[in-house]
Structure formats: C-alpha cells, structure tokens
C-alpha cells in the first residue's frame, strides 16, 4: 500500500508565492550587487593603472639623472591621494641585469614593506588581494628599461561597496519576503474561501446523502469547472441510486424465488444424499468382500504354488523310499532263504545307491524351496543403516556370486559407479537385491547368448532441499540375454512366476526383490523397456550421501 502525504492548498499557495517572490528579489538584488561591486573593482583597477602611469612620468627624470632624493621629494606629494598605500621605484642595472632600490613612499597609516623585485616583474595587470591592489609597470625611455614602478592601492572603497551591497541585498530580500507574505495572504483568501465553502457543501451532501443538491457557482473559472463537474457527478449518483433501488427490488424478488427453489432442491439433494450414502455403504461392503476374496485368491495361489513346487520332489522322495523298502524286503527274504548271490547283492546295492541319490536330491530340492520361502519373511532384513562405498560393495557381492554360479565367469560385467560414491542405507537388503538380479540373469538370460553382458549403473540425485546430503540412489540394471517373455512381463514381480517351470526355478526371486525394494528399502522398482534384447530394471531408493 502506497502512503501519500496529504498537503494543503493554503500552505502550498503561501509557500509558492513566498518562494517565487523572495527568489526573484534575491536574484535581482544579488545580480545588481555583483554588477555594482564589479564596477567598483574595475574602477579601482583603472585608478591603480592611472596612478602607476602618473608616478612613472614624474620619476623618470630622477632615474635618468640618478637623483633618488628628488624622487622621494616628489613621492611625498602622494600623501594627498588616499588611494595610495605604498610606492617603490626600482632602478635597472644593465651591468648585472638586476633591480636595485631607488625610492619609496608609504602612507601615514601604513608601515614600510620589503622590496618586491620579483613582484615588480610579474604584475603586468593590477591584482587584487584580501587587503589591497598591487600593480607594477616598467619605466622605458627610448626603448631602454630604466626601472620599475611598484604600487599598492587601497581596496577600502571595494570593501565598503561589498558591505553596502550586502546590506541592501538583505534589506531587499526582507522586503520581498514581507511583500510575498502579504500577497500570499490575499491569494489564500481569494482562492481558499470558495474552496472552504465548496468543502462544507460537499460534507453536508455526504452527511445527509442528499444527492439531489447542487453546488453554488464560483467566480473563479477553475473552481467553477470543479463545481459543474461535481454537480454532474451528483446527478449520475442520483440516477445510479434510483437504478440500484430498482435493481435491489428485483433482486429481492429473485432471492425469494431462489430461496424457494433452493428449499426444493435441498430436499431433493437430501434424498439423493441418503440414496448415495446407502450405495456407498453397499460399495464399502462389496469392497471389503472383494479385498477378502483377493486375499483368499492370493492365499490360494500361494498354497497352490507351494503344493506344486513341493509335490514333485516330495513325491519322488516318497516313491524312492517305497522302492528302497521293497528292495530291502526282497534282500531280507533271499538272505533268510540263503539264496542271496553276489550278483543279487550287486544288483541290490546299485538300486539302493540310485534310489538314495534320488531321495537325497529331491530332499535337497525341497530344502531349497523351503529356504526360498523363508527369505520371503522380510523381518529377517531388519538391518541397521551403515555407510557403504558402492564400487567396492558391488565387487564384493560379485565375488561371492562367482563361487556359487560359475556360469557368471563367461559374462562380461560392467559396474558403472564413481569410485568415491558412498551412501548410508540398509546394506543387507540392498545386497540381496543386487545378488538376486545377478542370479536371475545367470539362471535365465544367457542359455542361447554367445557374448553375455551385464551393465550395472549407480547414480545419486539430491533432493530439492537446502541440504545436498539427502537424496535418492538410482540403480539401472541391464543384461543382453533372452529377455522377459511377454506372457509373464506383467506379472514378473508376483510369486511363482517363472519362464523355467520344471527346470529348477521357483519363481520367487523377483517377488523377493520387489518386496525388499518396496517394503524394506522404501523405494521403487520397475521394468525398463529397451529396444535391444535383454532385461532391464530401474530401482530408486532413498539414501543419505556420505562425504569422503
């Protein structure tokens, strides 16, 4: 909001008249005073020149005949000239080309002054100082330099003129100020009296709200224009009020009709809201039933997956155990009947070995499936955060995987990360995510690929905050394998989804990765669609950057 300083016409008129009048008088007075002082100064300079010329004419014979006493005698006649203060006559010595003192004069009120050889040669024009004028002129005869006349003249007349002009200027300015004050009072009465009358009438109109009134005519043309303009404004206000009264009356009638319609619509809305509330309650009930149905459906898929995965190895183990039991009974029968030969014994041992290997392998497979289900329990990843350098951290994970999955030895793996990038996060879950991605590629991606390749890229993006330490770790994982089949690409993160069903894969790896990223690391993971063959994933998790 802009604050404007409120002024007064009376004060403005007074100040303007006083300022203009006083300024004009001051300028005129100062100009005349300066011209007067300048004339006095020019007259004194000319008088100084004339005196020097007068002295020159009268002391030249004394210089010619080397009679300083005659020059001193004549110089005493200058006593009757109050303008003269000091006079020196210097003689020029041709042999040494220097000046010597010849004669002098000084007024009774003045003290003698030292010789002014240097000033005599410099003062080609009269020069004014704070106390006097001084001027020097060479004395020439037939083109030869005889000497110099140096004269100091009084500047009392100039000082008197300056004092007189200053006093007159101040007196004129004071008189101009008094005159401007008187003139401003007359103008204030001339201008502000009609204004005061107009303001009083306007206040009365505003107080009584009688917009049919009119302002009286004013003798001043400008104020009379304001009066006519204000009267026109009053007429428009009166017309506007009349139109507003009509509009208010119509608006009142419309409001009554609207109130009636609002009441009807409100009743209809209440009925509709009640119907909607009933529908929402039914939808909530249906939603609850759908959620329960989905839970049961998910539980059914989980049980079906567990049953399917466990059925084959457990069934094979049971079958092998039954065969072993039959073989053992046959062996016991022949042994009791003493019909057991070495060939029979060799046959039984071979059968025992094969069936025991089958039992052991399927029980191991069952144990692996159980272990995979145990990894889905995310409470085991309640690790505390710690600082990890991503380059060495990834290399350690890769070295551990090489011992478990020798097929990774033929894969060209590139880990693209800054050597100094260090973040604080849950290291255990992050290691499980990276390990499972490498394991997934090793098991599914490179069976038909000649030059397998895996690219793992890490980057840090700071948050839009005052601190650059908090942000998100972006992980881009890509291989050039066989890719994700379209039939399972939309369900890749669901449990028991795999393209190697019956070939040792359970379909729980990417489900574990999804749960670790979303629930433990509080991040996101999605499939990154790429133009070339292979599988690619983008992972984003919140971390804190650690300065090295």
TrEMBL record:
<keyword id="KW-0547">Nucleotide-binding</keyword>
<keyword id="KW-0597">Phosphoprotein</keyword>
<keyword id="KW-0812">Transmembrane</keyword>
<keyword id="KW-1133">Transmembrane helix</keyword>
<feature type="transmembrane region" description="Helical">
    <location>
        <begin position="16"/>
        <end position="37"/>
    </location>
</feature>
<dbReference type="InterPro" id="IPR005467">
    <property type="entry name" value="His_kinase_dom"/>
</dbReference>
<feature type="transmembrane region" description="Helical">
    <location>
        <begin position="161"/>
        <end position="187"/>
    </location>
</feature>
<keyword id="KW-0067">ATP-binding</keyword>
<dbReference type="GO" id="GO:0005524">
    <property type="term" value="F:ATP binding"/>
</dbReference>
<dbReference type="InterPro" id="IPR003594">
    <property type="entry name" value="HATPase_dom"/>
</dbReference>
<keyword id="KW-0418">Kinase</keyword>
<protein>
    <recommendedName>
        <fullName>histidine kinase</fullName>
        <ecNumber>2.7.13.3</ecNumber>
    </recommendedName>
</protein>
<dbReference type="Pfam" id="PF00672">
    <property type="entry name" value="HAMP"/>
</dbReference>
<keyword id="KW-0175">Coiled coil</keyword>
<dbReference type="InterPro" id="IPR036097">
    <property type="entry name" value="HisK_dim/P_sf"/>
</dbReference>
<dbReference type="InterPro" id="IPR036890">
    <property type="entry name" value="HATPase_C_sf"/>
</dbReference>
<keyword id="KW-0808">Transferase</keyword>
<dbReference type="Pfam" id="PF17152">
    <property type="entry name" value="CHASE8"/>
</dbReference>
<dbReference type="InterPro" id="IPR033417">
    <property type="entry name" value="CHASE8"/>
</dbReference>
<dbReference type="InterPro" id="IPR003660">
    <property type="entry name" value="HAMP_dom"/>
</dbReference>
<dbReference type="Pfam" id="PF02518">
    <property type="entry name" value="HATPase_c"/>
</dbReference>
<dbReference type="InterPro" id="IPR004358">
    <property type="entry name" value="Sig_transdc_His_kin-like_C"/>
</dbReference>
<keyword id="KW-0472">Membrane</keyword>
<feature type="coiled-coil region">
    <location>
        <begin position="237"/>
        <end position="289"/>
    </location>
</feature>
<feature type="domain" description="Histidine kinase">
    <location>
        <begin position="305"/>
        <end position="545"/>
    </location>
</feature>
<feature type="domain" description="HAMP">
    <location>
        <begin position="189"/>
        <end position="242"/>
    </location>
</feature>
